[in-house]
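Annex B.
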Amino acid sequence: MRKLYVILILIFLTSCNPPDEVLTGNNVGLHSSNLVGKSGVPPALTKQERLQSIGTNMYSFVSVNEWFDKETILYLTDENGVSIINKFEILTGEEEKFFQIDEPIVRLDANPDKSVFVIEVATINGQKEFYFLNKSGKVLYRLEDSGEELQLYWNPYKENELLIAVLLEDYSIKLLKLNLNTKRLTDFDFEHYYVQWINKNELAFLNWDMFSLSYYAPLYTYDIQKKQKMKLSEEIIAFFTSENYLLTISIEDTATQNSNYTFYDSNTKKILSKLHVPVLNTYSEQWWIPNHEFHENTFYFIKPNKSGDLFNYSEGYTLVSFQMDTGKTKEIVSLDVNYPMKLSPNGRWLLYGYQLEKIVDIKKKEVHSLIYW
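YqgU-like 6-bladed beta-propeller domain-containing protein: predicted structure tokens.
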């Protein structure tokens, strides 16, 4: 009996001593894989991602504009005549001012690797100015008196270099080359103004006949170093490029029900795969092309569920992914309208909508709203 009392006393004393280690908020993460709930699954493996909504009011909000990084977006508000661009983290809801200016912001875009952001501003005197910003919101370069219209063609192989097509008052067009590292803006001597890089040394362009009503033109490549042109394909409606890939769009004839999408290796010029996309007819000299995005070897596009008349079409759309190397197609989610879209740098999320106010979770095949009023 005496031994029993001793054992009970030892147990009691032991239970009163502080434990060797306490799982506080500071170190619980180190042991989260060892903590098992009633389901038998460690909490670290059951963590739920929850998209946050933007906490702004409907009177100041203008639009969501661009991806800042893989989980952060940039959106624009207008408060008493002041344009403010905010950073918003979609999973935490954390928000921070990125840039502001006392003039209307018309457009915000980024270079391919999201290291430079371009803001188009409409000045009081009716001119357009462009601000090139780094990731800290600091102005790298300011382009003034830029003409009536301006189109940027980023070099995906040199993130601080781009070509700029400028529409002048007399409706002539000139090409400029901007190097943001050296802050040099120079003339780029080339007679074609719609160009895109297809690799480190070559541009591609459509050789349009301005006096023809044709939908298509031959596609040429241009070697910048050798200053040589080479015809790549005949009768192309449009072309688009991504790093290491080239997409051309063509048709059999104007009465066709499908557009032909052909994907090339942009270095070897070899055809990798082909895709047929239903046509929505415009009954004009303009050909309809659905919104699309590239990510690595994947092409995302909003596919009409059937061909038809663009202005009366009501059959819905489907967001589709297409593997350019293999030709494998996968449907992601149904959509009502062919709205603009922008893909996150990691390919997980897709901004979508008239104001890019919705977000598609590509992995979970879900559509969420970033704004609730």
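Residues 1-46 have pLDDT under 50 and may be disordered. The first strand starts at residue 61 and ends at 69. Further annotation is deferred to the next reporting cycle.
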